Amino acid sequence: MLQRFLLILILNFIVFSSRPLFAADIRDSVVKIYTTTNRIDYYHPWQTKGSQPAIGSGCVIGQNRILTNAHVVSDQTFIQVKKHSSPKKYTAKILAIGNDCDLAILQVDDKDFFEGVSPLEIGELPSVQDKVNVFGYPTGGDDISVTEGVISRMEVTKYAHSYSRLLALQIDAALNPGNSGGPVLKDGKLVGIAMQTAFNAENIGYIIPTTIIDHFLHDIEDGHFDGFPVLGIEFNQTDNPALREYYKIKDKQGGILLSKILPGSPADGQLKEGDVVTEIDHVPIAEDGTFAFSKMERLWVSYLISKKQMGESINLKLVRNGEEKSISFPLFAFDTLVPSPYAAPKPSYFIYGGFVFTVLTADLLKEWWDYRSDDRMRIPPLDFVYYYYGLGRLNEENKKEIVVMLTVLPDDINIGYHNYSNLIIAKVNGKKFFSFKEFVQILSRKEVPYTIFETKENARIILKNDDMDRIDQEILSRNNISQRFSQDVADWLGSQNTAKK
Prior knowledge:
This protein is α+β, with helices and mostly antiparallel strands. The protein is 19% helix and 33% strand. It has helices spanning 2-18, 20-27, 70-73, 210-219, 241-246, 302-306, 362-369, 382-388, 436-445, 468-478, 487-493; strands spanning 30-37, 52-61, 65-68, 76-82, 90-98, 103-107, 131-136, 145-158, 165-171, 183-186, 189-197, 205-209, 233-236, 256-261, 276-280, 283-284, 290-292, 298-300, 313-320, 323-330, 349-352, 355-359, 372-373, 376-377, 403-408, 423-428, 431-432, 450-455, 460-464. The strands form six sheets. Strands 21, 22, 25, 26, 27, 28 and 29 form a seven-stranded antiparallel sheet that branches. A six-stranded antiparallel beta barrel has the order 1-2-3-6-5-4. It has a six-stranded antiparallel barrel with strand order 7-8-9-12-11-10. Strand 15 and strand 16 form a beta hairpin. The radius of gyration is 27 Å and the shape is flat.
């Protein structure tokens, strides 16, 4: 009887200690984040969309830092955090943010917040079929939530916040609004951060793995986030036998065929169209653009580039004109023709004759993509999409930026153009330009009695320059717009008064 009693007691202790204690040990390490956000209206770039409350999750890591998603705290005007054991909310601020990888570090100045809190230890990259636990504060309750899932896929995929393609892990655990930024644990160690769910799918969630977290934490050690490098190439697969023969690629050599080198990118001036890259940092590249990541997994070649830090050199082995070559060069920050989300803190704009001009960015495109009606996304103007997804992305004209005319603020000066919107501007007074700054500088000279805008479709908009400053001031006043142009434009023009110029 005594032996049976002791056995039951031991079994009860094991059952009791295995569940609640696991959650209790890390409960205060998982924090609830309260934010007030005020996003810029990129279609009306002089204003914001108004304050909105939101919640998210985060976790405490070493050095009294809170790790969360960038999208939880982006566009924030005020942040508070709360741990499980206390009803008190503590004011927090952003210490570092990496929009590329959707990660951010928060800091709480009040040291009382961290009393009794054990930071989570960052673990190794989990494997497919590993079981994990997701902790966070999703909508539907105030208490901490724990769900269990399995790593079902490992791949380079698009991060919804930044549109960057980085390594992510797919899990089948339930992720809901509020889970964002919450820790994903395996054997009590942090192996990922909950990030996003698949649109119109059930039980398909994505987490940011430790490799990306480690890259981010190493990047910000100097107090500045540099981001994830890209090479700046377009390529084709090389599995066609005739193609391989034409480019003199040996059997079992693999390789990807470079079809375009993007202007201004790290590859510009280093690589050539027609090169066949067979190795990156001594890792063989297969003809389909993948490489062996582990015994069972293959990843897209872009991972080998994104794992580098800015400033580091990349080593390539390639076939050029039938000859094998090795080449090495440094990686640096590079913006594509249409900048990715959050590439700039505020949009550039200039109002002239009631026409609103700005730069084509992914943030502007999101004004259409983020709007959903009946589960359908609005489609941006096709001319805009052409420069983001179409052949325009190749930047054959070697432009720095694309200038667009968004809308018209009606006035006598622009009669006949009131229904114009979403136009790509190609020339001003017959002159081509390659950046918004150059566009503004041409526009501000007023050397001729008329200003003529030419669009990509060869349409012409003609304005008379007489008394333009006064007319624009009246247009601004009628539309309750305080500034004719953004601060960067004011700096270009040497103006100290953005409201009156």
